Amino acid sequence: MQEKILILGSSGQIGTDLVETLRQKYGSENVVASDLREPAAHILESGPFEQVDATDRARLEEVVSKHGITQIYHLVAMLSATAEKMPMKGWDLNMESLFHTLEMLREKQFNRLYWPSSIAAFGPTTPKQDTPQSTVMDPGTVYGISKLSGELWCDYYFKKYGCDVRSLRYTGLISYKTEPGGGTTDYAVDIFHKAKKDGSYECYLAEDTALPMMYMPDAIKATIGIMEAPAEQVKVRTSYNLAAFSFTPKQLAEAIQKELPDFKISYNVDSRNAIALGWPQSIDDKVAQQDWGWKPDYSLEEMVKEMLEKV
Ligand code: SER
Question: Which CATH fold topology does 5-171+237-241 show?
Fold first, then answer.
């Protein structure tokens, strides 16, 4: 069967990269991009785009039926730092849009849903090193609470109604095509732009705050990988741990200095550091490796080299 894919949140950091890869793989006409915001010109020119507010169920149903959608990648979210500033808005956006797609999946308006969780679903008393797949989860941010709740709802819809919903706990994601917005891990993208432009960067996380991170091509590979895996291999229906590498701002700066020896980093710590301190420092993803064969391609050094070339 020819899959018809709808991407919600296609103008965001993940969406922009995912639309491109999926269009190459499935054919441009079979991948519908959608967002509230105007997409980049190349997305608009390379295939169908629909303006969609993911909290508007009637509009979602209209687009799904118009294009005969079989799969949805739901990438709409208010990220951690922004949601702390407007908790109710963050909760409503993150949960309403998820419930609309889960209900439409239950009603068989389409067949398969991808919805991302995050390291933010863990919390201050979660083991920080090699955080296991199943462990204490006590998120301390609105975004994290929405991700943990969402994971449990996905699992519920799978167990209760047999809905084919699949999910990954993303780490911080590093990419050059679109800048992230409102996250705690955004520094790891900004730093490359400022390194190239100004030769220096002022970081809002402390120099020794370690976080798990991943280069976008690996995140896209994982996302499409779990969506294409045979259903019986996707045993975890909350969300899978996923890992590539971890670093502190100091370690990232040192890796950049190997390429740009004059690069300088300084620190002006803000409230985002407290958010980061409540998250894991490294992730154990062997369950994803075992269940559906996940493996990242990029090391920290390879990511740094490529980012400096491409930003
Ligand atoms: N990158 C996200 C954030 O910082 C975490 O999922 O909010």
Answer: Rossmann fold (3.40.50)
140, 124 in Cβ contact below 8 A?
yes
Indicate which atom in ligand 1 lies nearest the CA of residue 184.
4
Pairing verdict, β 211-215 and 245-247: antiparallel
Q: What global pTM score does this model have?
A: 0.98
Delimiting residues of CATH 3.90.25.10 domain(s) in the chain: 173-213+244-310
CATH number of 173-213+244-310: 3.90.25.10
Query: pLDDT tens for residues 139-156?
Result: 999 999 999 999 999 999
Task: Write out residues with Cβ below 6 Å of ligand 1.
Answer: 79-80, 118, 120, 143, 170, 172, 183-185
User: Strands, E, within 71-194: which ranges?
Assistant: 71-74, 112-114, 117-118, 164-166, 168-170, 172-174
What kind and span of H or E run contains 303?
helix 300-310
When pLDDT is cut at 50, 70 and 90, the band that residue 275 belongs to is: very high
CA atoms of 33 and 18, how far apart (whole Å): 10
The pLDDT tens digits for 27-40 are 999 999 999 998 88
Q: Specify the residue with its C-alpha closest to ligand 1, atom 1.
A: 172
Closest C-alpha among 69, 72, 83 to residue 118: 83
What residues does CATH 3.40.50.720 cover in the chain? 5-171+237-241
List, in sequence order, every residue forming a beta bridge with 131; answer none if it has no partner: 283
- DSSP 8-state class, residue 38: P
